[in-house]
């Protein structure tokens, strides 16, 4: 059974800092991995999707890496801003089945 | 192009009543997924549907829960005889192709509260 863990559970940083969020998964037979952002009272917004054959994806100030063999992914946020404050979720899609397995998220607060 | 639309945003039911949650996928998306987020827990997969067909319901509780995605109209998640443990945020997502090929687009969710 796939399990996804995210560390830390919460993170508070001053504006402008670069930061790294971590995600680990127990079964390396994944099809892809996605990072989402969830704002309070709202749905999830997909940030980056990394296929199993890829090592990283970049979008603006965000960079996500994937090391499938070790079961790890990181989300790097450069020059953080207060608007980045949200919960960040990592989810893996296994090679079989249709479900995404989510971690419990990292709650990020960026202080002005 | 409107996003995934879910309604109602908030739904209050008394124990024993029925709850019907609706989801309209993005235009052109024929694949719909339902996830549940219980308090203090992560999102859990419930069911995957493609127009008129249930493809994977391995995450659905065996009793009281059902889902449909008719040829016309929104997808419906139906919970019969609700209990307090059903209180959660229910999220719908859609995609234009089978899971894994592209990103999933999520709705804003329906917060179900059972009194």
Outline the structure in words.
The complex is a heterodimer of chains A (112) and B (115). Helix content of chain A is 0%, strand content 60%. Chain A has 112 residues and is mostly beta strands. The mean pLDDT of chain A is 94. Chain B is built from no helices and eleven strands. The radius of gyration of chain B is 13 Å and the shape is globular. Chain B has 115 residues and is mainly β. The A-B interface holds A 4, 31-32, 34, 36, 41-46, 49, 89, 91, 93, 97-105 and B 4, 6, 33, 35, 41-45, 48, 55-56, 58-59, 91, 93, 98-100, 102-109.
Give the topology.
The complex is a heterodimer of chains A (112) and B (115).
Chain A: E1 4-7, E2 10-14, E3 19-25, E4 30-38, E5 44-51, E6 56-59, E7 62-67, E8 72-77, E9 86-94, E10 100-102, E11 106-111
Parallel strand pairs in A: 2-11
Antiparallel strand pairs in A: 1-3, 3-8, 4-5, 4-9, 6-7, 7-8, 9-10, 9-11
Chain B: E1 5-7, E2 10-13, E3 19-24, E4 31-37, E5 43-50, E6 53-56, E7 65-68, E8 75-79, E9 88-95, E10 105-106, E11 110-114
Parallel strand pairs in B: 2-11
Antiparallel strand pairs in B: 1-3, 3-8, 4-5, 4-9, 5-6, 7-8, 9-10, 9-11
Share of residues in helices of chain B: under 10%
In helices, the fraction of residues of chain A equals under 10%
Which structural class is indicated by helix and strand composition of chain B? mainly beta
Q: pLDDT average of chain B, as an integer?
A: 93
Instruction: Detail the poorly predicted runs of chain B.
Output: none
The proportion of strand residues of chain A reads over 45%
- Beta-strand segment tally of chain A: 11
Question: Which descriptor suits the 3D outline of chain A?
Answer: globular
> What's the number of helices of chain B?
0
Unreliable stretches covering 5 or more consecutive residues of chain A: none
**Largest interface by Cβ-Cβ < 8 Å:** A-B, 24 and 27 residues
What's the overall geometry of chain B? globular
């Amino acid at each position: 059974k796939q399990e996804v863990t995210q560390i830390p559970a919460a993170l508070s940083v001053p504006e402008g800092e670069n930061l790294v969020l971590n995600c680990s998964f127990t079964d390396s037979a994944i099809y892809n991995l996605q990072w989402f952002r969830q704002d309070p009272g709202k749905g999830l917004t997909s940030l980056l999707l990394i296929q199993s054959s890829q090592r990283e994806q970049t979008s603006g100030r965000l960079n996500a890496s994937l090391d499938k063999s070790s079961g790890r992914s990181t989300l790097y946020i450069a020059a953080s801003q207060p608007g980045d404050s949200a919960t960040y979720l990592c989810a893996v899609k296994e090679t079989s089945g249709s479900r995404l397995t989510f971690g419990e998220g990292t709650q990020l607060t960026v202080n002005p | 192009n409107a996003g995934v639309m879910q309604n109602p945003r908030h739904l209050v039911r008394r124990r024993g009543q029925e709850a019907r949650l609706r989801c309209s996928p993005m235009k052109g998306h024929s694949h719909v997924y339902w996830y549940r987020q219980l308090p203090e827990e992560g999102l859990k997969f419930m069911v995957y549907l493609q127009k008129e067909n249930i493809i994977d319901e391995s995450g659905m509780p065996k009793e009281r829960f059902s889902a449909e995605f008719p040829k016309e109209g929104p997808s419906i998640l139906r919970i019969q005889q609700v209990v307090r443990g059903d209180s959660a945020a229910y999220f719908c997502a859609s995609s234009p192709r089978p899971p894994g090929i592209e990103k999933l687009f999520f709705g804003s969710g329906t917060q179900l509260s059972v009194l």
